[in-house]
Amino acid sequence: MSIALEDLxxxxxxxxxxxxxxxxxxxGFAGLQTQAQGERTVQQELEAALSKIPGARPKIWPxxxxxxGVHAIAMPVHYDTLDSIPTEKIPYALNSLLPTDIRAxxxxxxxxxxxxxxxxYWREYRYRILQRRMPPALxxxxxxxxxxxxxxxxxxxxxxxxxxxxxxxxxxxKEERSTVRExxxxxxxxxxxxxxxxxxxxxVGSGFLRGQVxxxxxxxxxIGLGKRDSSSIQNLLANGTRKDAGPTAPAQGLYFVRAGYQxxxx
Length: 266
Hints:
Blueprint (H helix, E strand, L loop, with lengths): L15 E9 L17 H9 L10 E2 L8 E11 L8 H6 L6 E9 L11 E11 L11 E2 L6 H11 L1 E4 L12 E14 L2 E10 L6 H13 L7 H8 L14 E7 L6
Parallel strand pairs: 3-10, 5-6
Antiparallel strand pairs: 1-3, 1-4, 2-3, 5-9, 5-10, 7-8, 8-9
């Protein structure tokens, strides 16, 4: 569906705040946020598209951040605009201007004081691990391929220790903020695939530190491989540092799933 932007303008339209939901393949991006060296980012591409819509302020405020190679299923961002494009047509207008690895999938008008990050109560992430003998072709940029067997029982046990309010400094990378966060849900799902299985590690929390989810996943994989005990999570939360935890899992297996603007209910 094509939108003629000049046909949608009205004289002196009121300022609106738009909550936009994005889906993107992070493979070709240096992350979500604009980078100092001008690398290609999601924010850069979206703001370039907004700059072509008369009345739209080419500045977005995302719910969170994703690193290079990390994907998003439903990432909320907001922006302000004086355009008069009907809200339901905004995704069509933007998608005609965006590259194919970013898509606006929904838009809604929100209150002037709404903020995609500050108004958010919780965020959900998913990490996909592919277990089979042969490496993937189609999903090579979307999963962490681990050919070795993982023992899921101690991994599930370890996940229980992560739920609650803790100091997650042992899983933080170059973090200057407070490292105390609350995780509401930490869950493991298994899905059969051709020649193997996928293991999904899912986390819902009030917020996450830089590198936290991938560091937790790397530690959980070490537990599944028998390289550390599940109870080591307790020690890491009590007095661990980043060097005590497991490796950082590859970026391509991580997905920002969704965010919530009401208190979390499991």
